[in-house]
Design a protein that fits this description.
The protein has a single domain, classed as Alanine racemase (TIM Barrel). The chain has an eight-stranded parallel sheet with strand order 7-6-5-4-3-2-1-8. The chain contains nine helices and eight strands. Helix content is 41%, strand content 19%. Strand 5, helix 6 and strand 6 form a beta-alpha-beta unit. The protein starts with a helix and ends in a 6-residue tail after the last helix. It is an alpha/beta fold. It binds pyridoxal-5'-phosphate. Pyridoxal-5'-phosphate binds next to strand 8 and helix 9. Pyridoxal-5'-phosphate (PLP) binds next to strand 8 and helix 9.
Length: 224
Amino acid sequence: MSSSPQERIIAIRSSLPSSVRLIAVTKQVTSDMMRHAYAAGIRDFGENRIQEAAIKQVELQDLPDITWHFIGKVQSNKAKPAIEHFQWIHSVDSLKLAQRLDGLAQQLGRSPLVCLQVKILSDPSKSGWTIPQLLEDLSQLDECTNLQINGLMTIPPLRLNDSETLNVFYRTRDLAKEIQEKNLSNIKMHQLSMGMSGDYHLAIQAGATMVRLGTILFGERLSP
Ligand SMILES: *Cc1c(COP(=O)(O)O)cnc(C)c1O
């Protein structure tokens, strides 16, 4: 493969349907490489460590129109910097965290866009709501009026085959539809944040509106 990073990113970007927003996952990617991605048209960057993102935000402050997406586990002591450094938080995984973010958002005068992370199949290595838990928490989530709850995020368990993975994505889509039909005042289900390098074709097939791609854009990382 002799193509430059920029050419590779452009090729993948242009292969996606225009309805799908590409979040370039840049954990462990240098800000120099992120400039190549920016030059290739990327405006959405996803990070899973606040400190690492904060450094890159300073290094890239001359690029004004980047949207920063937090995709990692939000530790409760990091909820405030998560709001301060990111416009989107894809990984809101409990009512307690949502309520904490809501209170902080009010104090900070912010209204972050968030996705609710769901676990369609049980998976001890992942956090997120189970379907029944989420349905039960909806009315309290609807009271988190400083958050713009905008959709669902999911990560299928590892080692599923394609049809099992596709099924997880379809069930996530169906859950979003079920929630949307409740017509809650503050909860919108516009986004389905699902699909990573290994499974984004399946996610798009099931209706993903945001895919979070790292490896396929930037190459293998040193550690997960
Ligand atoms: C690392 C990560 C990604 C990107 O994964 P790739 O397989 O490198 O595309 C997407 N989403 C989340 C939550 C991640 O942590």
